[in-house]
Specification:
Elements: H1 3-29, H2 33-63, H3 74-98
Helix pairs in contact: 1-2, 1-3, 2-3
Length: 105
């Protein structure tokens, strides 16, 4: 895979995860009064995560050019992989708190 394709893939995946995290955050904010106290730290964490993903997406856009080689983007790839691990963990924690049934269509 070329560096350009790899960067575009990272950008698209982070954007998709950002949308998922944003949706979870919105659903959490609509939780019952009883649940709000319990989930408020998760809501804050998710907002911080959205901001971090925005920064990561902008960094990928800025540092990935058609002339970038795979070795040049390895640090971005490593940071991206770690970001996805964090996003998945936080999303799973958030869904456990609200219950999987609250995330239906």
């Amino acid at each position: 895979m070329s560096a350009r394709n790899c960067c575009k893939t990272m950008e698209m995946e982070l954007t998709a995860w950002k949308a998922i995290v944003y949706d979870i955050s919105r659903k959490m904010q609509k939780a019952s009064t009883d649940q709000i106290g319990e989930i408020s730290p998760y809501i804050r964490d998710l907002h911080i995560m959205i901001e971090e993903m925005d920064e990561r997406i902008e960094q990928i856009r800025a540092s990935c050019t058609p002339v970038t080689g795979m070795d040049d983007i390895q640090s971005e790839r490593d940071a991206y992989d770690q970001s996805l691990v964090n996003v998945r963990m936080k999303a799973n924690e958030a869904m456990k708190v609200l219950g999987a049934g609250d995330f239906g269509g």
